[in-house]
Amino acid sequence: MGNVTTEAWVIYASSNGSTSPQPAELRKEEFSFSDVDEHEVLVEPVYGCWEANMTHALERRPIDVCRYRGEEKVVIGNAGVVRVLKTGSSVSNVKTGDVCIVFCNGIWDENGFPERILAYDAPNTMGVLAKRMKLHEKAAHQSARRLALFASAVGGVLAALHHRVGQLAASVRLLDHVVGGRFCRPSASVGLGRWCRAGGIIVGETVRL
Questions:
Q1: How far is 195 from 119, CA to CA, in rounded Å?
Q2: What is the pTM of this model?
Q3: Which terminus of the chain has fewer Cβ atoms in its 10 Å neighbourhood, N or C?
Q4: In terms of CATH architecture, what is 3-142?
């Protein structure tokens, strides 16, 4: 098995014996890692997301992740979208060219729930702050396309809902004019909310979406 060398942003462990370590800094340099095994995939990050644990890693609070993992340097970043470049011989859930979402599970229990987090406290894992990275097949989910379709569908529903709520709000304003304000008026922000009864008329009390 050979090595893969890429460009990455890394953080280094704090100085030995430091009781109050200084915050880490990201350094851009070449980074090498072993090629994928039968259950891993080689990917290229397309999009990344800054997660709170990345800030924790830089601040070395509550732990110095490099020293905790026993490693000189670490590539952080465990949320993003990646494209599969190569798969191990036993990988069956994704294939070359697939666009996947990174699942941050670095070490999991018997039920699949995370015990250690990818590119944070899970040893020998790396994150998306690199031009190439490798993942266990369980951390690469071929759901980016489905998520985009879901988001599009939700957007359509919300647009229709917003239109309908606008119609309801207009009706409430009309009733307010007719009956002289004997019921709950909507706030300036149109939304959905609980129903209330006042003056014998049931109306909607709006809540911010």
A1: 47
A2: 0.67
A3: N
A4: Alpha-Beta Complex (3.90)
H helix runs in 47-193, sequence order:
52-59, 65-69, 144-179
- Name the helix (H) or strand (E) containing 109: none
- Backbone dihedral angles phi then psi of residue 38, each to the nearest 5 degrees: -65, -25
Between strands 140-141 and 195-198, the pairing is unpaired
Cα–Cα distances in angstroms (integers) from residue 187 to residues 74, 196, 207, in the given order: 50, 14, 7
91-94: long-range pairs with CB below 8 Å, 24+: 91/38, 91/39, 91/40, 91/41, 91/137, 92/137, 93/137, 93/140, 93/142, 94/41, 94/137, 94/140, 94/142
- With a CB cutoff of 8 Å and minimum separation 6, the contacts of 28 are 7, 8, 9
Two tokens at 195?
């129903």
| Cα 82 versus chain centre, distance | 12
| Residue 98: CB atoms within 10 Å | 18
Tokens of 30: 């070449």
For 87-132, the pLDDT digits (tens) are 999 999 999 999 999 999 999 999 988 899 999 999 999 999 999 9
